User: Fold this.
Amino acid sequence: MSTLSLDELASRMAEIDFAMLSTRALNGKIAARPMSNNRDVRFDGDSYYFTLEKTHMVQEIEADPTVALTFTGSAKPDGAPPLFVAVEGRAELIREKPAMKDHWNEDIEKWFAEGFETPGIVLIRVSAERIHYWAGEDQGEIAV
Assistant:
């Protein structure tokens, strides 16, 4: 078992573009969907995602902000094994444009034609509380 620091893990997670964001659906079941983090993973355990106000996901987060993220990275050309990360955390819905601008990336304009000025756009910040990772035989857990 290895011990990665939060900085080391966040650096490796930044290489992974998509995460699966899981919420508790209003019917009590687990709902998951792929979300692009735009490689915007902070060294303090926060990650950010854009969505639209009228989604089930926003309703679910408003009802229960406990969420999970899963990341899967590819094996490295140097033979390093793929990275798997499971994050347990809390989601916060942010509607203020300055915060959105700080996390905006032109790569996501294909989903939001008017950028962060798109009507109904919402920024989701997931603050990690516990992170478990696996990379080949290495694994560990980080409490945030």
